[in-house]
Amino acid sequence: MKNIKQLSIFAENKPGKLEHITKVFEENKINIMAFNIASQGDFGIMRFIVDKPEKALEAFKKAGFTISMNEVFAIEMEDKPGGFHNVAQFIAKSGLNIENAYVLIEKDRQGALLICDIKDTEKAKKAL
Amino acid sequence: MSLIWNKKAECLLPLEKEQLQLERLQNIVRYAYEKVPYYKKAFDKSGVKPSDIKALKDIEKLPFTSKAELRDAYPFGMFAAPMEEIVEIHTSSGTTGKPVVMGYTVADIELWSEVMARSLTMAGCTRADIVQNAYGYGLFTGGLGVHYGARKIGANVIPISAGNTKRQLEIMRDFGSTILTCTPSYTLFLAESAKEDKIDLKSLKLKAGVFGAEMWTEKMREEIEKRLHLSATNIYGLTEIIGPGVAQECGVKHGLHLQEDLFYPEIISPEDLSVFSEGEKGELVLTTLTREGTPMIRFRTKDITSLRRGECKCGRTTIKMDRITGRSDDMLKIRGVIVFPSSIEKALLEINGLEPHYKIIITRPHQLDEIEVQVEASESLFSDEIRHMEETKRNIENHIEKSVGLKLKVTLVEPKTLPRSEGKAKRVFDQRELK
């Protein structure tokens, strides 16, 4: 288990918005490792795990986006049937509530990381 | 308290004032009747003659003049003075139909300079000041009005005109401007740009601002004063009457002193046109008491305000009008409820962290009016959790509903996507197709 930095960007739910965001990553040569989109009616929040989060934060601020950065937990999973189940079982036992989660598959494809946004950081740190 | 430009005119005793107003009213009514065919026709139609004006109250016998009549008179139909006496022409922004054309004689320009000198003095301007005049110069009266007033005082006026924000900020810093004159929405635009250009507004010499030509609120004043580090005062005026300088706030900042030795005010009901008594809120009607080029009799300004008499702490005795809180023609009727966009603005600005930029859109999708307010999801409103954002949205909706009495929908949009204005801001979009 490790802590990694996640970027959250506010976006209106309109055609072309995602392209607008990916362009900033492209122009600043930032590599996207995982992402997730949560939307509600007329707006949404896009979350990204990237190779250079600090640089990305600055670039998006400069481009006029509303963006924030926070730490999330990355839990290793085995890339095989039942891998996710093992982790889920563990999380349930620890009584942790996950706000938001998605998967990052590592380059070597040996394993995968479950990116979890857990607001009760202390409890999570202890359990994990 | 600061200086008074013209103690004699601004501190008249009630009886002196009424006597002066009556004499001037009788003169202007006779003058208008004799020189402008429109007035002769209108007075005759109402069965009133100039000699019927025996007391100030008799003004109520005269017909109103509205923008439509001025447009019909395009271009010079309202001119009372012969063309060779006219030395300047201004028009009011013709957003709908033909513009309104007003003519100024030498005496009118002097009158305008006088009221602007009174106004700028109220804001704290002296001959030692440097006035950065960011109102547009041209047919619009803002630029030249301030210019004439500042010249009369003997202040140093920088005629930079509107726009070119980068240059405004440089000049402000390098020339040491002490007084800023522009629209209130432009000040916020300036503040934002200063932040981007890393210019510290606190370190500048600005001490006061004279802001007008559009509606604004007390909350906006707080915001402007905080961001620009100056004392923000409100000025009122309109081309049809003279331009800016009809009324202005003194240092007390509690109502605008209306120059009633030169302009006679009334408040009427926009619905049945009856005259309201003092203190009641309604539409402001103005009569120019000395204007030569284009005298204006009972002009319906469409601006909603109220009037208060009594001596001000600053020593002036001129009648005070409240900040304009709406336009009788902007007055929105949403599901039967009367709403002024300014009251929505007021509610919005009471919310911490909300940027003072917004857009109001009214639609009628299914026989029922719907109103949407767009606000920017600034950093201070942002959360990386959808449900917190939803909550923020609902809080804004509830807050507006509580203060305006109207259910509406709030939409969060991306920062800096709502139009910033360099002049008059257009913030209300009524897209109802009413048949």
Annotation keywords:
heterodimer, A: alpha+beta, Alpha-Beta Plaits, 2 domains, B: alpha/beta, Rossmann fold, GMP Synthetase, Chain A, domain 3
Verbal overview:
The complex is a heterodimer of chains A (128) and B (435). Chain A has 128 residues and is an alpha+beta fold. Chain A has 2 domains: 2-70, VC0802-like; 72-127, Alpha-Beta Plaits, CATH 3.30.70.260. Helix content of chain A is 30%, strand content 41%. Chain A has 4 helices and 6 strands, in the order βαββαβαββα. Chain A has helices at residues 17-27, 53-62, 83-93, 121-127, and strands at 2-12, 32-40, 43-50, 67-78, 100-105, 111-117. Chain A has a 6-stranded antiparallel β-sheet with strand order 2-3-1-4-6-5. In chain A, a hairpin with a 5-residue loop joins strand 5 (100-105) and strand 6 (111-117). The radius of gyration of chain A is 16 Å and the shape is globular. The N and C termini of chain A lie close together (7 Å). With 435 residues, chain B is an alpha/beta fold. Chain B has 2 domains: 1-327, Rossmann fold; 332-430, 2-Layer Sandwich (GMP Synthetase, Chain A, domain 3). In chain B, 31% of the residues lie in helices and 23% in strands. Chain B has helices at 7-10, 14-35, 37-46, 67-72, 106-123, 141-153, 165-175, 184-196, 218-228, 341-349, 386-404; strands at residues 86-92, 100-105, 130-133, 156-158, 179-182, 208-212, 231-238, 243-249, 256-258, 263-268, 282-288, 299-305, 307-308, 320-321, 326-327, 332-334, 337-339, 358-363, 370-376, 409-413, 428-430. In chain B, the strands form 5 sheets. In chain B, strands 4-3-5-6-7-8-9-14-13 form a 9-stranded mixed β-sheet, with helices on both faces. Chain B has a 4-stranded antiparallel β-sheet with strand order 10-11-12-15. In chain B, strand 1 and strand 2 (100-105) form a beta hairpin. The longest helix of chain B is centred in the first third of the chain and has 22 residues, at 14-35. Chain B is globular and about 75 Å long. The termini of chain B are far apart. The model of chain B has no long low-confidence stretch (mean pLDDT 91). At the A-B interface, strand 1, strand 3 and strand 4 of A face helix 11 and strand 20 of B.
